[in-house]
Amino acid sequence: MENNFGKILSQNEFSQNDILKLLSFNETESQILFQKSREIKEKFIGKKVYYRGLIEFSNICQKNCFYCGIRAGNSNVLRYTLTEEEVFNAVKFAYENQFGSLVLQSGEQSNEHFTELISHIILKIKELSKGTLGITLSLGEQTQKTYEKWFAAGAHRYLLRIETSNKNLYQKLHPNDEKHSFEKRLECLKMIKNIGFQTGTGVMIGLPFQTLNDLAADILFFRDFDIDMIGMGPYIEHEETPFFQYSQNLSPLNERFFLSLKMLAVARVVLRDINIAATTALQAIDAEGREKALKIAANILMPNLTPSHREDYQLYKNKPFINERKLDLASLETKINNIDLEVARNEWGDSQHFKNKNSQK
Ligand code: SAH
Ligand code: SF4
User: Fold this and answer.
1) Angle made by CA atoms 117, 115, 196, in degrees to the nearest 5
2) Which of 16, 97, 205, 334 has the most CB atoms at less than 10 Å from its CB?
3) In order of start, what are the domains of the chain with their CATH numbers?
4) Is ligand 1 within 6 A of the CB of residue 163?
């Protein structure tokens, strides 16, 4: 299949136009993209899949992002915060099952009480796991002081999606007020990086008003920001949000899924040694979505450990695993082995990119 398509992939540097071409590949053409991305993953990362046990700590949120099911304005949501006991039981499960890390995610809350509560939980996770569990936070925009506190307490990775690197599009996705400012989001991402967190970001794919060119620019944004980790997946509409009104204008779910796989593969080809998550939203569209992502580009999986209230943490509709009673780790591992990958045990699986750039300093 050596042709023009293949040629782009043999380059080491990629322009926005090159990326646009890769993202436009049809099913047949994209097979060479996926093959290339697989080779690069194997070369820079290897065959290991790192688990991050996901704890959806609270669905209380002070923001009103137009696309998100748990936005403050959705009065149908039953609001919850997990008890400490629930969190620590999930931590014990992760520890006993040799997970390398946890992700603590929540609706955005910025206040003294929340800051202290999270610090306390971070310290306790370290204590319960004898320092072995790595901690990623995904708790939205906070002050420099709060980020510093959480870093000092022992969290070492932070995921804050930019959602889109196009400021105009960002403004369409959010209310026009200081709580939802593109500049503030970017500023927070910079703070996170400067404090020393391994820094993760990402975008939603297939949003209303989003073009392929926007997505190509997103990849360059990740590169230029020197990002360490990526979590991105398809946008999936939720009935109880203002953006549901654009459902008719969206591409079909299977196309959004295919485009998401291409985005992951292009991110791997362009950024090489970063960590890439196989996100749950992929699974909401395709029962084997996460495995497909792991096979070609991703190396991180976030099994959901939230012990209760999963039905109340629906950012989008058809969220998978809502009724999962017990996480079946054996069958998950079999699925991973079946795609010729292996589950890492008791390893943090830090971003190789982060390690490489720090060893060069
Ligand atoms: N409140 C935090 C973390 C929880 S939301 C924050 O916003 O950063 C985590 C991510 O869920 C968001 O960054 C967004 O990209 C994603 N998300 C929200 N609504 C979604 C939807 N309808 N479809 C797909 N992803 C969505
Ligand atoms: Fe809140 Fe995050 Fe949803 Fe925005 S995306 S409404 S900040 S939970």
Assistant:
1) 115
2) 205
3) 46-359 (3.20.20.70)
4) yes
